[in-house]
Sequence to fold (289 residues):
Amino acid sequence: MLYKFVKMMSSIISMLPRAVWQNIGNALGEVCWVLVPRKRKRMAIENIMCSLSLERKQAYQIAKQSTTRFGKMFMEVLRIPTINKDNIKQYVAIDHPEYLTEALSHGKGAVLATAHSGNWEMLGASLAMYGFPLVAVVQKQTNGDMDKFINENRTKAGMHVTYKTGVREMVRMLEKGQIIGLLMDQDAHSDGVPVEFFGRLASTPSGAAALARMKGAPIIPAFITANPDGTHKVILHPPEWVEKTNNREEDLLLMTQKLTNIIEQHVRNISHEWFWLHNRWKSTPKISK
Fold:
């Protein structure tokens, strides 16, 4: 039932002029901000104050912007079926695509390390539409209908979709020269490694470093950001290679810290596009003991 409703909404939104669906998205974002629990808002604001050394008023504005933008982002996700490989350049440009091309030239696939910043759904879809063989590693949605709708859009964009639990499939796809896209900026609880993020220890997924080390594949840090005119820009960084010594744990820790430093710098540059409502430092006390 929900699947059919969202499909219908997608069709309707896709037919609307840009100004109309953007206004709907902006209004939806404002409603979302009102509905966010006070405790969650306070956590986000205090994390911004601590991370960026800002006063509460400035931090409040960033927290609000980083939340209200989800309304427009949701509209963009609903409109993904209108974008294809023939018109993708009208919506998304790639900064330094040669980094990804060079990474793939080694014949070992690549790992794309990214973050919940900007419209990350558009990041994967656009790279696939530009012809890069991307495997999206995703979290299964609690609602089956929404999971079906989102994964259907990802597949239509040209991505191969696998869930986080599909490690063997990730390894096989990497061996075939595919790009494994991994989000690595959320609290990893007891499964993560402790690295510094904005000066505080944060439990961080080491999957990107582990996969790359296992297969000798390069890692490309990648982000997406919105332009003032409503289009997007994909930002690719030069390839990173994991050193393979006799100390695997140290190798993973060093690369995970390096990638986290790159993510931190991106968030500093475009702080209002990061997902501050997530408690990134939730597991810090346990790690610090």
The chain has a mean pLDDT of 94. The two ends are 48 Å apart (CA to CA). The CA atoms of residues 3 and 232 lie 27 Å apart. The chain has eleven helices and nine strands.
